[in-house]
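Hi W., the flavin-adenine dinucleotide complex you wanted:
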Amino acid sequence: MIGCWTGYANEANDRADGGTRMLYDTIVIGGGIAGLQAAIQLGRSLRRVLVIDKEAGRSVVAKNYRNILGFPDGVSGPELRKRGMQQAVKLGVELKQGEVVELVRDTDGIFVVTTADQSRYRARTLLAATGLTDAFPPVPGLTECLGESIFICPDCDGYEVRAQPTLVIGAGKELIHMSRRLCHYTRQQTLVVHGVPAVDGEQLIELEKTGFPWYCANVTAIDQRQGQLQAVELANGIRLQARKAFLANPGGSVNNELLQPFSVKILPSGHVLVDPRTKETSCRNIWAVGDLVAHSQMAAVAMGDGAQAAIWINKRLMEPSEVSPPPTE
Ligand SMILES: Cc1cc2nc3c(=O)[nH]c(=O)nc-3n(C[C@H](O)[C@H](O)[C@H](O)COP(=O)(O)OP(=O)(O)OC[C@H]3O[C@@H](n4cnc5c(N)ncnc54)[C@H](O)[C@@H]3O)c2cc1C
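Structure:
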């Protein structure tokens, strides 16, 4: 269950001045897996930390992570977030529910973070953990199954479809690539080309080369029972019985917009380039972690990123000349 941000928020966030007087050591933008892990580590480093999160993101929709140490039966993204928030608050971390809409740096090098409700917060360092946005097709029944019986990441969940009939739904080279990767786990695949009117040319050749049956028709509905896939209905009236499926949709985007005004290096894929050792971006005192950064895209990696960045943020904050000290109260 998510939705507890308000319950955990420290009263300091709700002050009439919108937080502008307070100078945080670090503001974490994005309270998903990477951001919360970083906040916990920073809280344990006795840092004054604010996490701002708009309650969206991949850890909100993922129904089950089964590849995380200590959770042999899996744990949902929302459950992990809830535990992370509780743990962070115990360490004095403040949480605010809201969307960050602007980041600027003032002449003293202090970051000013503005949220959609026009509150402003100030910090000596920033940690961006805004993740990425998947291009999930808006099909009824899909949300309930995400991470439970419909998957997106073969490294995370290929194991779940081992030697089982599996639908692979998507388009373009992403669909073919996904099918090839899943061959390591199952050769009982049926491909569904979704989101394009017809296939021809190169795509047709590639589809035929897979050797698997395929359909070209949009998925119009997903029949599921408590997140367990039962069947997929296609626009041409065909109903495909299935218990497991993978999505391979082109069009996801990395949530890097807030960093674009800064001298942060962004790869053509949209991922933010960071120092592999410290997770600091090419813009001093801005760190980036998790799915926002190239090739993380796994919960355990996001946690590692968050913890690693937090350690280096703490080191930076110990260098008084590097970041403006807090004003005297
Ligand atoms: C269906 C599905 C299944 C998955 N299964 C697995 C699995 O089995 N195993 C595994 O390891 N990984 C899995 N993943 C991937 C895993 O969820 C991500 O790798 C992980 O969530 C990355 O953490 P993150 O903190 O970088 O991003 P997220 O968890 O996506 O967090 C980003 C946060 O940033 C916030 N945010 C973004 N922009 C703003 C803004 N402007 N202002 C305020 N807040 C903002 C969002 O609200 C969100 O909470 C799955 C993902 C999906 C979608």
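The radius of gyration is 22 Å.

W.
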